[in-house]
Each structure stands twice: as structure tokens, then as C-alpha cells.
Amino acid sequence: MNIERDTKYWLSLEHYQQNPDFMKLASQEFTSSPLQSEDGNDNDGWGRREFLKLMGASLALSTAGCIRRPVQKIVPYNSQPEEVTLTVPNFYTSSHFDGSEVLGLLVKTREGRPIKVEGNPSHPLNLGGISSRAQASLLSLYDPERLQGPRKNLFNEKRSNKDTIPVKWEEMDDKVTAQLKRGSVVVLTGSLSSPATRSVVREFCQAFAGQHVTWEPLSHEEIREGQKACYGEALVPQYRIDQAQIIVAVDADFSGTWLQPVAFTKQFAKVRRNISQMSRLISFDSNYSLTGANSDIRFKIKPSQQLSVVMGLLHEIVVVQGKSSFANNSAVKTQLAPYSQAAQQLGVDAALWKKLASDLWDHRGRSLVLAGGLQTLTANQQALQVAVNFLNSVLENDGKTVLGKSGNPGLLASGSEMVRLIGDMQAGKVKTLIIHGTNPGYGLPSSSGFVEALKKVEMVIYTGDRLDETGDHAHYIIPDNHAMETWGDAETVAGVYTIQQPTIRPMYDTRSVQLSLMTWAYLAKQGPKRLLDYETFYDYLKNFWKEEIFPAAVKAAGKTGTSFEVFWGQALQDGYVGSQKDSTARTFKTEAFTQLKIPSQTTSQEASSGYEVVLYPTVQLGDGTQSNISWLHELPDVMTKITWDNYVCLSLATAEKNKLKEGALVEVTVGATKQTLPVHIQPGLHDSVLAIPVGYGRTKAGKIANGIGQNAYELINVKGDSILASGMAATLTATGKIVDLACTQGHHSMEGRQIVVEATLKDYLKQKDANIHKHHIWNIWSGHAYDGHKWGMGVDLNSCTGCSSGMIACHSENNYPAVGKNMFYRVGRCTGLGSIAIIQARLNLQRPFFSQLCVSTVTMLLASLFALSWRPFTVMKASMKWSTIAVLEPDTARITVPIKCEGSIGLVTQN
User: What's the mean pLDDT in 379-389?
Assistant: First the structure.
């Protein structure tokens, strides 16, 4: 049968180009046969039909026997707990910290076991929102590869070989305590959101005259140092996206991976719902990010051009248009002079550039400029942050959309501190190193010398949940409790404190890191009284809240007569206490900008002559800490829709220039480091950019994560005290080999059906069902009267960014099994909910959209993309035949009308 396939909207490049292999695949209902022999893959074992035959025979044989087996019964509660009702779940407030974001949680438990994680709707920041990784953290609790007791590595003299053995807690504690008394102690941790844990570490370091160093791969040191240079205090401010009418994001993927994406997404959705006051988002992307895909105007840039974007806007506002109090400052104008041609160098239309600058000025105090993340860790990272701070101050945003006093005090990770620590270890200045909550053996490149420096330390103690890349080089590996097994707290932003409650007793012989530090101080009889007096960390935590948090919290709430026990009980019930602090405008230190070192033109030209590498985290894996969770590997990347692998993204023009196809293996060389990765052709990417996701290439994470992809952290360049993750010059070499990428993007085709209905706004206003072709519908079911409830699902694309958290929620709620890369490649997405990215053929743009799979229908939400913007619409499924479509007109006015779609989706586009 000859099927007409419209290529105006396409799901993949193969679809658009009518690739013969794709056309053959599209003509098949499934990519695999129920017969193993027809699949042509003898390594897959039994085919489905052979398997069913075997099972049928086994069932017949098993039922043929008449032997009655003894009945075994499980033992019921001897004394059922009062709060437990069989089959009725209980919910406990808790928190989840993922390196930079604290989420208030509701953990659903049944008969004492956590079974589902949800966002706490009353939490002031995430407001019920939750990330994919927070949802999936439930699986890490039940991971059978977690450490089940303390371990000891027996090394040979050169520490080139080892034997790992179990060790008793008492023996290990005695050895560690004796070592600590020798001095030169360093505690290396990731960012600590918990104020009580920060207090324990601080008092422990005080007890042993130790030093606390904070590092993790996705740190925000460049923001803190920029704030210090400009305003005198090193901190990460709180950004209020919900207070901004115009947002400019320079590689700051705030809706996907940067800082607080869940909270930011909630704020962003808030200012997109009200059509009369809808905000505008302008994105400058070196990698095609989720934020860029949701922007109204998006520009593709190279990492080396990030500074030019901000300095160019400053030049247009301050020098050309003569706005702000700095317009007459000669030092400022001299600093901006080299960026007079920024728009031209960036390839931006001059009129559009002037309009953007004018709009920013017109919305001063109600605008926001953002830059940060792994993508901005270039040689100009410090200069970029100073320029962003200056632009926000020029626009009078500080104290309004940038709150300097309300950031998260726990975001202290520092690459420069880590570089200095490595130097101290190599010099033999560190006798005891305690590592918690960070994995530098994986997240730092081999060239950093961290692993070799560990060999110079007398005793290395590692706390974690597995013998990972760093624990493999430690003398003692101490299994830490899972977050759902221990008490804790978190400071979301300054003044807002979140409780972390255990929802199950420790499943194995584990111990919280806080209790370990308290135990060693107690055995050594060293440290402040509070560190020595409490038997458990719960006692310490409760007393800490009583002394440090309770007085200020009840005073701020006007409840000074409240007892601590009442306050504590209410905190456990609500999950948090406190509120965000107000902030006033700070004085910008002009010399921080005027004394800024501008990169030479020679350096810029060298950087632009070839390819530039961009390393970026993904929504599903982040920094790679949770990579042994199968749900996260089976969650298609929000932009590329690829699972079970990482790759190098390059533009269509770059692929054509190098004669590369999807999945072609290439060798990427950065300095002296080479990595072989498959190619993913990404529409909308700059032709000089090679974008590679981090979080893959684990070797000691577990059976699921080990060997999946390549460790892109190896491409990081440690230059002096700085860590460079983007903007480095790179070369690209084809190997001539090709691999299959398990991508869900091209698994569906319209097969000639009118799933996308397009009409101009003019036609739509004349006739609401314009251009709708009503196909004949066959139904294999007899008629049924729906007299009761009718269930539907509504998705507002003004609010939905395509973050894919709902897909992990679907995994968790319905307990979908993981199938692995091979089955994903052969049979496609295996979940009930999903998202797709729709690309318009005449444009080099794409955006992720939510799709719902029902029993008998597939609803896909599509949008037409115009020259520099997209217009979203929503579909609300009220029944199997009726939908409500909300359309954003070019003037941002929304029209909502019901239409009878019967399997099709209406789309109104601009002339």
C-alpha cells in the first residue's frame, strides 16, 4: 500500500530525508519478530513464540501432577502498629538534595516500606514539583549492590593492588580514632545543604584541627566569586524568575539542570499562564538545552561567545542608547568599546539586537540576566559572571529579581580548593582524608592527579553507598545510610529549613556519616560539648534545631509563646519552617568591571577557527551520582530522546561536512585526551560546537551503570586553580565505524493520518474546524454508554517545559520494568507516558512535547516553529473524542475553543 508521508513536520532527520532504512522500519509495526530466527539475532535466546510454547508445556506438566504441597503462611503483625492500616498508605514529609537543589518531599509508605516519592505541595519553593532524579531515588534505596557493612582495602606497598575484606565497626573505629590523633586531617565533602551536618563537620574539624574542603563536579564557584568581586560577599543568590517579565539566559539551563530547575520551572510557569502579563524568555545556547527549547527567541552561539553576548548588550544599553547612571563613566565605556560589533559577530539582526536591549531597559527591575553551569566554565568564566552582575545592576534587578541575601548557604563547592588539596596531598601535608558525598575519582580527569595524590595520604576513609571509583582507593569504606533511612535537614534558601525524616529503618549494617564523625570525636574525647554529649545524630539534630533554628523561626512567625515540642511536631507535619528573606539592592563595585581583563582578539580568533567542546549535564543523570538506577537510563534525554548512551552532538552542517551519519563513531581530541563517541546530529546546534553529556562512563557504580557510555569528565582541563569544562579547542576524526543509538524519537510515524491539523489564525477565526479532515473511524468494540465518571488528562504547554519528570513518575506508579538498550532499540519506548520532540522541516529548530499513550489512542502535542519563536498550545482530553485547544496568537492573546478532533489535533499557525 502506498502511504503518503508529510515531511513538513518530522521526528528525525531520517524521517525528513526519507531515508530508505527509516521507510522500511516505518512500514513495520514492530522492529522485532516473535520468532527468534526471524530477528536474525541468535544472541537473544528464545523467541517469544518458542518461549510461550515452552511455558505452555511446563504449565501442562506442572498441573498434571496431583501432589499437594504444604501450605506456607506469612506471619502477620503480632501487635499491629496503631498508625498502620493494611493496604492504606502513610505519607511522611522529607527532603531530597541533589547537589544544588533541595526539594520538599512526601514519601508514600505502605506497611513500613517507601513505595513512591512525590513533591510536597506546601513547600514554599518546589510547591509540589519534583525532579526525575528525586523520583528515581527510591530505586537506590532497594539497590542490591549497596554496601551492606564496612569494608577495608588491603593494599600492597605501592597501592597498585588490593584485597577488600569485611571489618567490624569497633575495629575500624579504633584504627580511625588513633589515626585522627596524628593530626593533618582534611574532610572532603560535596555541597552540604544540611545546617546540622555543616555544624557536625565544623565541630569535628575544630576537634582535630582539621580542614573542610567542598567539591563536586557541578559546582557554582564562578557565581560565588563573581558575587564577591562585585558586591563583597561570596554567595549564590536566589533568582526570582516569577518576578521577571523578560529573562535572558546565557547557557543557564534553569528549567533543566542549573541550580534549582524544579523551583525555577514552577516560577517560570507562573509568569507564563497569565497571558496579559506573560514573560518573555530569550536564550543564547551553545548546547541545545531545555531552557533554549522553551524560549521565545533562541540564538545559537559558541562557548567563546558567551561574554560577547553580555558585553554587547551592555554596550548597546550604556554606550549606544546612553541609558543608566554609567552612561557618562569613561572607564566603563572604554571597557565596552571592543564589543561595539557584538551583534554582527554573533550573527544577530541589528534591529532585533537593539529591540532586545531596549526591552531590557524598559523592564528594568522586572528583568533578569542569567549565566552559569558547566557550559560556562570557560577561560572567561569569571569575567562572564562579573559582566552579568553589572548588567543586572545597570537594569536595577539586584534586590528585586536577584536576591543576594536569600541564596542557599550550602553551595560552597570549589574547584580551586580541590586543586590546592591535590597539591597538599602530593606534598605529603595530609595524613588523614575523610571523603563524603563526592566522587572525585570519577568526576575529576586523570590529568588532575587526584588518584595518584591519594597514595601519599596515610589513611583515606570513604563514606558512601558502594565501593565506587573513589572508594576503590580508600583504606576504609564506611557504608552511609540512604537518605530515606536517616534523619537530617536542609536549608533550601536562607531562612527556609526542610526536615528529612527516615521512612524505613536501615536495611543493612550502615551508619550515617554524622554519627561516624560524632563517634570518632567521642572515642578520642576531643571536640565541643555538643559533639560529644549526644548518642545519636537524631538527638544532635533536635538539639541543634532547638538552639539554632527554633528561636528565630518562632520570632519571625510571631509565635514566641510556642513550646519547642509543639514547634518540632508541626515542623515534622509540614516538612519545613521559615520563609524567604527579603533582599535590598546592593552597591556594585564599579572597579570590578572596569578592571576586568578582556580576552585578546588573538585568543578569540584561535578559539573560533575550529571546534569547541561543550560539556553539559543531562536532566536524567545530572553529574552521574545516581547512574546505577535503570529508570534514569531508560528515560529518554529531554532533547535528543536517546537512552542508554552518551554521544557527541553536532549540527547537521557539521555532519554533512565530515560525511557523518547518526551513530558514526568519531574520535574527539581535546589537548592530549581522546575519546571515541557516537555521533548524534542535533538540529539547532552551532556548527563549531561539539556538545557531550557528562554522567556516563562509570566503572565502579554497579551492573547497570558500568560501561555505559564514556566518561566525558576526562576532557576537563585543569588550568592553574581553574577547571575548564567548555570552550576548549577540539578536533574531530571519523573512525569509519557506526553503532546503533537507542533513540525513541523516530519510533512513530503518522502513516498518512492527519494527526497534525494546521490552519492560519485568519482561517481559524473564520472557521473553528478549518482544515480538519475527518477520517473514517473503525471501532472493534460494541457501543457502551458512559454514564459515570469520564477520566481525562490536561496538559498546559504554557506551563509544561518537557522536563520528563512525569515519565519517571509513571515508571514508579506503574512499576514498569527496565528492558535495556537492546529492547529499547528494537521495540521503542516501554512506558505509559512519554514526550517527543517535533521539528519543522523548513527550520533548524526543535522542542520537546508531552505525549500521552492511552489504551486506544496516542495524543501528541505539536507546535509550529516560526523564524525565531514558537507558539505553544494545550490539549485537554475530556473524552476519547473531544479536546480543548488553547492557542497563543502572535500578539500573545489566548483563544480557547472546544473542537471535535476524533484522533487529530488542531494547530493554529501564524501567516
Answer: 94
Cβ proximity of 376 and 285 under 8 Å: no
In angstroms, the CA 62 to CA 577 distance is 60
What are the grid coordinates assigned to 40, written together?
536474525
The answer to whether the CB of 894 falls within 8 A of the CB of 275 is yes
Which alpha helices (DSSP H) does 45-168 contain, by range?
Answer: 48-64, 132-141
Amino acid at 128: G
Q: What is the C-alpha separation between 500 and 811, in angstroms, rounded?
A: 24
Contact 758, 864 (CB under 8 A): yes
What is d(CA 483, CA 503) in angstroms, rounded to the nearest whole number?
9
Name the β-bridge partners of 117. 107
pLDDT for the residue 435: 96
Grouping H, G, I as helix, E, B as strand and the rest as coil, residue 632 is helix
Between strands 846-853 and 664-670, the pairing is unpaired
C-alpha cell read off for 392 = 543586572
Is residue 884 pLDDT above 60, yes or no?
Answer: no
Provide the CB-side half-sphere exposure for 714 (13 A, CA). Answer: 16
Find the Cα–Cα–Cα–Cα dihedral 356, 362, 364, 369, rounded to 10°. Answer: -10
Residue 580 DSSP SS3: coil
Q: Is the pLDDT of residue 105 over 60?
A: yes
For residue 791, count CB atoms less than 10 angstroms from its CB and return exposed for 0-12, middle for 13-18, buried for 19 or more.
exposed
For the segment 639-690, what is each residue's pLDDT rounded down to a tens digit?
888 889 999 999 989 999 999 998 999 999 999 999 999 999 988 899 999 9
- Quickly state the pLDDT bin for 865 (edges 50, 70, 90): very low
Residue 513 has pLDDT above 70, yes or no: yes
Q: Which three cell numbers stand for residue 876?
A: 485537554
User: What's the burial of 694, exposed, middle or buried (CB within 10 Å: 0-12/13-18/19+)?
Assistant: buried
Contact 398, 588 (CB under 8 A): yes
- Residue in the structure block whose three cell numbers are 561567545: 305
pLDDT of residue 603: 40
The C-alpha angle 78, 83, 87, rounded to 5 degrees, equals 80
> Is 790 buried (19+), middle (13-18) or exposed (0-12) by CB count in 10 A?
exposed
Would you say 103 and 123 are in contact if contact means Cβ atoms under 8 Å apart? yes
CA–CA gap between residue 655 and residue 651 (Å, rounded): 6
C-alpha cell at 131: 525532579
Do residues 460 and 471 lie in contact, with contact meaning Cβ atoms separated by under 8 Å? Answer: no
Which has the closest alpha carbon to 149: 461, 465, 471, 479? 479
What is the DSSP secondary-structure string of 278-291?
--EEEEEESS--HH
On whether the CB atoms of residues 471 and 700 are closer than 8 A, the answer is: yes
443 within 8 A of 714, measured Cβ to Cβ: no
Confidence of residue 869 (pLDDT cuts 50, 70, 90): very low
Q: Grid coordinates standing for 160?
A: 597498585
- Write phi, then psi, for 28 (nearest 5 degrees): -100, 145
Given a cut of 50, is residue 894 above it in pLDDT? no
Q: State the greatest distance between any 2 C-alpha atoms of the chain, in Å, as a whole number.
A: 99
User: For 742-770, what is the mean pLDDT?
Assistant: 68
The segment with the largest mean pLDDT, out of 341-345, 716-720, 759-763, is: 341-345
Residue 279: CB partners within 8 Å, gap ≥ 6? 241, 244, 245, 246, 247, 268, 271, 272
d(CA 778, CA 624): 47
pLDDT, tens digit, for every residue of 136-162?
999 999 999 999 999 999 998 888 888
* Radius of gyration for the alpha carbons in the chain, expressed in angstroms and rounded: 29
State how far the Cα of 455 lies from the Cα of 438, in Å rounded to an integer. Answer: 18
pLDDT at 315: 96
Measured CA to CA, the distance from residue 300 to residue 84 in angstroms comes to: 55
Q: What is the pLDDT of residues 823-840, one digit of tens each?
A: 766 655 555 455 545 444
Amino acid at 63: T
Side-chain-facing half-sphere of 907: CA atoms under 13 Å: 20
- CA–CA separation, 640 and 745 (whole Å): 8
